[in-house]
Amino acid sequence: MERIESYASFGGHQDVWKHRSEVLGCEMKVAVYLPPAVADGPCPVLYWLSGLTCTEQNFITKAGAQRYAAEEGVIIVAPDTSPRGDDVADAEGYDLGKGAGFYVNATEEPWASHYRMHDYVVNELPALIEANFPASSKRAIFGHSMGGHGALVLALRNPGRYASVSAFSPIVAPTRVPWGEKALGAYLGDERDAWKAWDATELVATATERLPLLIDQGDADQFLAEQLQPERLVRACEEVGHPIELRMQAGYDHSYYFIASFIGDHIRHHARALKG
Amino acid sequence: MERIESYASFGGHQDVWKHRSEVLGCEMKVAVYLPPAVADGPCPVLYWLSGLTCTEQNFITKAGAQRYAAEEGVIIVAPDTSPRGDDVADAEGYDLGKGAGFYVNATEEPWASHYRMHDYVVNELPALIEANFPASSKRAIFGHSMGGHGALVLALRNPGRYASVSAFSPIVAPTRVPWGEKALGAYLGDERDAWKAWDATELVATATERLPLLIDQGDADQFLAEQLQPERLVRACEEVGHPIELRMQAGYDHSYYFIASFIGDHIRHHARALKG
């Protein structure tokens, strides 16, 4: 791994690294915040998954997370949102292809050879982080919008792997909303039954681990009614007794101003689980 | 004034407004954070002046100031860094013209007709803010780099106007460093004596008000030796007994990661003075 950016931040360091991903078949950038507590030994790792159009930069410049990560002694790892590079397939529009990996393993061409963000985030990246940084093997995951979908799905698909999971404004039912139908149709093909393995509202019905889901959602979010529909996940959880806390936040929208306002709550939530 | 952006943020609102400036002769954008405390009555106002190349956006997206402004009940006003528009003079390079107003009143053409950022920030903007927002007439000022220079110079030139002043990585002696020599030479002409009225190290020698100066400076700042030289201001203050606290911060650079790490300290410092 090659460090390409490094900034002192709240007594720790906000760095950006470049590395070759075998899973994705391309070079990737990943942001890593190391809190001052790494001087005293390995720290647990909180993975952040960003939303549509983002790179590894949006979260580290806008969310204000470093202060809380420093206070709690948690490493935050923020990967890019898709494979990158000239030989990686792309599409017109912001909601498919580069910047829109949806954290799935694609099965359809031209996507299948590079778009394997699930395996990258769940397996390859933690192995790299735990081998190259003062990181323990305690992991938690959270994200925003497409990345909130990613956090929920990755946690539900991989019981035991994450100590906790939370999401801001997540796409909870991608099999039933336009963003998800477009992306899952492209990456997984026309057979809709195959999409269900990447939909939190479907996965929660058969989850073997009752990992509590914490969700913050602004009630002034411009995507709430058409793309997000968090009440679908609440209903699915209620049907099987899966613990969920949906906090509707009055007046907040889909932006990083919303994320920044509640990121401290989420980081403290994860720190409790990671240290518990 | 017309509101062109509005985001819920830490219980208050981060807005961006557009207005016609008579002083600058153009349309300007200005960011205004209103803390939740405005519901209980007028709040004091802390003015932030940004550095070279910035607009009103950089500070509000990257500094993480809203949390502390909400906690302290302080309004933060962040103007743009120069006049804007097609009929405003500009120059090649990032350090003169648009994005580089240096908070002076220009006397030389082609700058003199629009580049009057001192009068805009000191007089016109506060009058607009205090007439249109739940703002008291208590004012404080801070800024970064070129904006740190601006904060120091505006406070020193206008005794009694600001309850407190602070700066991150300020250009403290623009008459003696390349950025300042280029800008002051263009805006004020070749007569170097005229530049001294816009140089904090010169102004402090004759200041009638002993307003304490708080400065944070990263010791890994890439501009420290050539452009910033804060020890010049410390020496000028020591010669006349002007109170100054220069805090050299180990490992920090010139970026917003540095600003974010210490913005809470500065906002609390100003809140104490504004409420004292």
Summarize the structure.
Two copies of one chain form a homodimer. Chain A is α/β, with parallel strands linked by helices and 276 residues long.
Shape of chain A: globular
* Biggest β-sheet description of chain A: 9 strands, mixed
- Spatial order of strands in the largest sheet of chain A: 1-2-3-5-4-6-7-8-9
Instruction: Name the largest protein-protein interface in this structure.
Output: A-B, 25 and 25 residues
Average pLDDT score of chain A: 98
Class by alpha and beta content of chain A: alpha/beta
**Intertermini distance of chain A:** 31 Å
Helix fraction bin of chain A: 25-40%
DSSP helical segment count of chain A: 9
As a whole number of angstroms, the C-alpha radius of gyration of chain A is 17 Å
The percent range for strand residues of chain A is 15-25%
| Total strands of chain A | 9
Oligomer: homodimer
Order of helices and strands of chain A: EEEEHHEHEHEHHEHHEH
Low-pLDDT windows of residues of chain A: none
What do these coordinates show?
Two copies of one chain form a homodimer. The first copy, chain A, has helices at 57-62, 66-72, 117-132, 146-157, 178-188, 200-203, 224-228, 231-240, 256-275; strands at 2-9, 12-21, 26-34, 43-49, 75-79, 135-144, 165-168, 213-218, 244-249. Chain A has 276 residues and is an alpha/beta fold. Chain A has a nine-stranded mixed β-sheet with strand order 1-2-3-5-4-6-7-8-9, sandwiched between helices. In chain A, β6 (135-144), α4 and β7 form a beta-alpha-beta unit. In chain A, α2 (66-72) runs parallel beside α9 (256-275). The model of chain A has no long low-confidence stretch (mean pLDDT 98). At the A-B interface, β1 and α9 of A face β1 and α9 of B. Chains A, B: It is an enzyme of class 3 (hydrolase). Chains A, B: It comes from Lujinxingia sediminis. Chains A, B: It catalyses: S-formylglutathione + H2O = formate + glutathione + H(+). Chains A, B: Serine hydrolase involved in the detoxification of formaldehyde.
